[in-house]
Amino acid sequence: MAAFLLKRLLSGFLVIWGIVTLLFLIFNVLGNPAESMTDENTDEATRLAIEKAYHLDQPVHIQYLYYLNDLSPLGVLDRNDPELTAQRYGRLFGVGGSQFLAVKAPWMRRSFQSNRKVSVMLSEKLPGTAILAVSSILLAILLGIPLGVISALKRGQWADRLVTFITLLGISAPSFFIAVIVIRIFAVNWGSWTGFNVTGYMFEDRVFGEGQWVHWKNLVLPSLALGIRPLSIITQLTRSSMMEVLQMDYVRTAHAKGLHRRVVLFRHSLRNALNPVLTSVSGWFASLLAGAFFIEAIFDWQGLGKLTIDALSAKDYPVILGAAILIGVIFVTINVLVDILYTRLDPRVRLT
Q1: Least buried of 54, 247, 258, 329, by fewest C-beta within 10 Å?
Q2: Is the predicted pLDDT of residue 319 greater than 70, yes or no?
């Protein structure tokens, strides 16, 4: 187990490092990031001060090393750095002059537009995306697995053909198109009956008093629009996997022994058919949690996706890099957890 975790953490680290390197190079090729923090009325002295504060007056490879040092949990800090008080760290020992080595939290710097810490901005938006992703994937699982089982048991019948046709439509349609259709039907045409809004976030600050209003109805349409594609894929995977498992010898043997059909279906067939489904669920959940960009933008949902799109429009590079790093960490973490879960579902699988 320890060797497996070490191997996966190393590969995950390489993935995140690759993401950081690629995006850093792309943003520096597109132009000087200082231009995003200034306008034509900014004097030269202010522009130079900004470039010095963000190390933009250094060659690209030096800027890159500074950024890696900021992200690393073990890095060199400077007592004269004005941002030092905004960071969390534990000093180890001095390395010369005003610099010292420290164990620290990753420093994602500040937004070019709002001057807020990127880590704070991400932590504020992550819950919104997490709620949307969890509700969408739960919808996909709770409907997709039963539909796939029914389709496999009714193979070749009208129920199977209907489920297959609908899920193929769901797989083919992009999420933003599904979102438009969902809004048109449930919020525009049937809005007076359903009460659903075209856009809106789940939480709203109270005008009078403390706390927030929770609008559960605003979660329904985004979850439906985001969950249609994973629902369709989970249904198809469950169907194909169940049809394969139902032909196995041990299933025939279980029937021959006189076991109840329900026992054979759930204990012997479905459990062994869940591995490819679990792979799909983990991949889709990581993708949804990382940020449903178009869905959040269409429904004005306050999450990572909308934050990243707004940052792209404003060329707010620290926010974009921070969101990309967080997305990479989410993918790596979920994939490791799923590999461990495999051994619980199928004892034949071993971590290597």
Answers
A1: 258
A2: yes
